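Protein modeling request. Please complete all fields; requests missing the sequence field cannot be processed.
Requester role: graduate student
Desired output: 3D structure, token encoding
Chains: 1
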Amino acid sequence: MDFSRRDFAKLLAGAGVSAAFCQLGRSAAIAAPVSGYKAMVGIFLFGGNDGWNMVVPTDSTRYAAYAATRVANIVLPQANLTPLAGSTYGLHPSLAPLKSVWDEGGLNVVLNAGTLFQPLTKAQYNASPNLRPVNLMSHADEQAHWQGLRARDINVDGFMGRLSDRAAQASIPSLISFGGSQLAMLGKSTSPLVLPSSGLVSQYGTAGNSADPVVFARANAVSAFADGAGQGAVTQTTATGLSSAYAQAVQANTILSATSTVDQYFTNPTTGAALTSDVARQLMRVARMIEARSTLGQSRQTFFVTHGGYDTHANQISVQGALFTDLANAMLGFNKAMKALGLNENVTCFTMSDFGRVYKGNAQGGSDHAWGNNHLVMGGALKPKQVIGTYPSQVMGGVDDVSNDGRFIPTISQEEYIGAIARWHGVADADLPYVFPNWATFNGGGRGPLGLFQG
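Delivered output (455 residues):
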């Protein structure tokens, strides 16, 4: 039988342990004990969400400027917007399911946030390219900037992974992705548990009771390797890690396959039908892992969820409407599940995306790559009904626009935005510069974590 290195790699990946396998030979930093329970859930909207149609000003002056500036085929009629009571903003009509969360005080809006190396004016942007983030408006680079938080350096690890480096470690990682292996999850001394959004974790081609001699041999080979006894220090260390990873997969499968009380909340609020979108499946599984927090021995959990398709260069009204319908229904279901578990005040969910899109739009009924963007934060610990930040000038080529079509310079940095959530989550002030490499630039001199939370 030809048992190749490629087969062995598949065995690892099929067991859902390739990320955990990276932990071999490492020891996690153990933080001081923390009290209570908290979880943060990042939802990355891959492709570059058009936040200017996610959150729209509703006062007469700014809405008129919005309608006059954006090309007509991506303008949302004012009457169709979902009003956010007590503010001068409305949500995209497909986000209407989140209105109840806003009304209850569990939703905030963050305006014009994005990648910054330092606070930047248009004059500085034009005069000093060395002050700009590198490769702005590139999908790959801006995804790395959002997840790694190094605006001018190579990102080899991510903020969630570095946060995990400073957290107490349980037998199964408290850092979990349902959106595949992502940079945000990679720490310097810890790695995440990567789980599927549907189905269970399984070993590739190794059904131990198979009558196929090739499959049977594979199963025996993996079992022997995972034992590692008498094979030397390197093999023993590797085998220990592999066995641990398989044990994690078994424990995760038990949670994912069991009947759960949270599933019932992931239904269409209009029809009552079960939600089937990938983002809904991911958030439902996040809710299951939160429900099992005590079994897992985790007082802090960090999750990464993905939702793709936001690169709307054309046909934006239709595409974004469908995406937002799935996102809003999934987030509402998750909110209901947290309330049912009595954990709404213990869990914060927030959006990220590559970048915003041009304010003006394009001739194809879409919008192109830009910079600053609007985001949503959801959770019971938030100060109620806040719109944080400054909406940019709607003058094309004006003080906030580095082009002539609405590529707005962010006025809120990722450190100020995500840093507020990390501090609430329990990251000590002394550890914030480790988690956020550019923390000193955005903490002090009148800047710092956004005031998202109560207390």
